[in-house]
Write a structure and sequence with these properties.
five-stranded antiparallel β-sheet, globular
């Protein structure tokens, strides 16, 4: 059972048991239980449903969806939701999202074992079914898909499968067959997906509406004139239920920061001194490159970093946007705009290249000023990227696990990091070969494309854990890969291509190559405490490689994507 759900149900059950022990008549006890039942229903609605579309949210996936009984999965990706918000406006897009969700939920109903999910701010719906196969789901979605240009302003692609990985792969194939046209424009005043205050959404329950049933319970308990100790114990348990529910429903499930309901409740009577907005760069492209599971882990890492730099006890409130999952908002009740700008700039500098996605920020005395500052920084970032796009000459060919495989590998990284007090690495990949001193990028791209068309998907198994300290750098843990004939041949082939193109590759022979995935960064003060380099074994993870990436190194631990080369299926 999910830990959060366990805490919620325990608080409800303890209060029910306390009601049962009260020295009052059964009709009075039943009245208390009826109010508590209503509280539980309100709590579940707030905790489990996306307020914009009324689809289930990501928390509902953990509370309600029986993963072991899922027969089929669909991933539905809305194409360029950011631009749709700019072109059509937030209110129109909200309405279209609601309409699209209603269409999905009308076909895939909850009573038939179907779960339609959307995370706040996400451009993706997921359908999980305990009664329908991937083929069944595909047939039902196809008519909607073919009619979308007539029925909906938002264009979308979909893929189905028995697993997340299979659904994602089929989604990518579908994107190649159909790529809709999107009108593009740049509007300074509405460049953000949250051009109005996120706390102004009136569809949310107010704090008074939420609080009223608990006050009614407490008033009823006082009216019973119970012995003082019993009365206080009962009121304490009511307060505990309220605290547990409030903590759950005001937090965004993925990152744990405050959501739009929290914004409405906690900002309505707060004297705001300054506001900062952050924006993750190219999140849509990041999902395509790394997979949504890896990007989710990066968002958790980013939210934790912001929480450390902007703690609540120093007057900061941290929110994630309900409309744009790549935007966070920091509100300060103590710092002026200049002080907040210094603080977030330090956080930005310290976080450079630590995650999968880059980010920038804007600061002001209010939302409007912060939006304008963020837009200026976006333009500057785009210019900087354009200036440096061809400056790298050290390029690398890498392969990476996808979706389900990534999740299993990251869990191993997280578990190992906990054991050695290290930091799990989010960008999990295996570097196959280096191609250095590149002069003609276009010619090399053509040669790599030609080579990729001769490859077939193959498996990589990683198992043994080793400690490596290279060039006096911070220690790392590697997960060593089995050097299969397919992997070794790829290493040799890419070395030969580099030689033919007048470039350099790794200097060692294939028999001396140690293929690996970096999984943990070790803190400097503990790196040397692991005396045995090959200190641990794991049960191993096997993942399937279906494409390789060509990347260019920009700094010690940061690589930009130059291109991806899928293998023929």
């Amino acid at each position: 059972m999910d830990h959060e759900l366990e805490i919620f149900l325990l608080a409800i059950r303890e209060l029910e048991n306390q009601f049962q022990r009260l020295p009052v008549a059964e009709p009075q006890t039943q009245g208390l239980r009826d109010v508590l039942s209503g509280i539980q229903k309100i709590a579940e609605n707030l905790a489990l449903y996306d307020p914009l579309t009324h689809a289930l949210n990501s928390r509902a996936g953990k509370w309600l969806v029986p993963n072991e009984h899922i027969k089929g999965i669909a991933k539905i990706d809305i194409y360029d939701l950011r631009q749709a918000n700019k072109v059509y406006g937030v209110l129109v897009v909200d309405s279209e999202l609601h309409k699209l969700a209603y269409q999905f939920m009308s076909i895939f109903t909850l009573d038939k074992g179907n779960f339609v999910r959307r995370s706040p701010g996400s451009d993706e719906f997921r359908i999980l079914s305990t009664s329908k196969t991937p083929q069944d789901i595909r047939l039902l979605l196809t008519k909607l898909y073919l009619d979308q240009e007539m029925d909906c302003l938002l264009t979308w692609d979909f893929g189905t499968g028995r697993t997340e990985t299979e659904a994602e792969n089929n989604l990518q194939k579908q994107r190649k067959l159909f790529r809709p046209l999107v009108i593009r424009q740049t509007i300074l005043e509405s460049h953000s997906e949250i051009p109005r205050l996120i706390e102004e959404n009136n569809s949310y329950i107010s704090w008074n509406e939420f609080n009223m049933p608990y006050e009614r319970l407490i008033d009823t308990i006082y009216s019973f004139e119970l012995p003082a100790t019993i009365e206080q114990r009962t009121i304490d348990k009511v307060q505990n239920v309220k605290d547990v529910v409030e903590d759950i429903v005001t937090r965004e499930d993925l990152t744990g920061v405050l959501n739009a309901l929290g914004a409405k409740w906690y900002l309505s009577n707060t004297a705001v001194q300054s506001v900062a907005l952050t924006d993750m760069l190219d999140m849509h492209e990041g999902n395509a490159r790394y997979g949504s599971v890896a990007i989710d882990q990066d968002l958790k890492r980013f939210a934790n970093m912001l929480s450390e730099h902007f703690p609540k006890n120093e007057g900061f409130l941290l929110f994630r946007s309900e409309r744009a999952g790549d935007e966070f908002k920091i509100v300060s009740t103590k710092n002026d705009a200049a002080g907040l700008k210094d603080r977030i700039h330090n956080a930005w500098q310290n976080d450079l290249h630590r995650g999968l996605l880059g980010w920038n920020y804007g600061v002001g005395r209010n939302d409007a000023e912060a939006h304008v500052d963020l837009y200026r920084n976006r333009v500057q970032e785009a210019e900087n990227l354009e200036m440096s796009s061809s400056s790298g000459r050290s390029t690398f060919i890498i392969v990476r696990p996808e979706s389900d495989d990534y999740y299993r590998l990251f869990k191993l990284s997280e578990k190992t990091a906990h054991v050695v007090n290290g930091t799990p690495i989010i960008d999990l990949h295996l570097t196959v070969q280096a191609i250095q001193n590149v002069e003609n990028f276009a010619a090399l791209r053509d040669r790599l494309l030609e080579y990729s068309l001769k490859l077939c998907p193959f498996e990589i198994k990683v198992k043994h854990i080793a400690r490596m300290n290279i060039n006096n750098q911070q220690g790392r843990l590697w997960l060593l890969a089995e050097k299969t004939p397919e992997l070794e041949k790829m290493y040799k082939d890419l070395s030969r291509i580099a030689d033919e193109m007048g470039c350099a590759s790794y200097p060692y022979q294939s028999e001396d190559w140690l293929p690996h995935v970096k999984i943990v960064d070790l803190p400097e003060n503990t790196s040397t405490q692991i005396k045995n380099p090959a200190f641990g074994n794991s049960s191993g993870v096997t993942f399937t490689v279906k494409q390789f990436e060509w990347t260019v190194q920009k700094s010690l631990e940061y690589w930009d994507l130059l291109d991806q080369f899928p293998f023929p299926q």
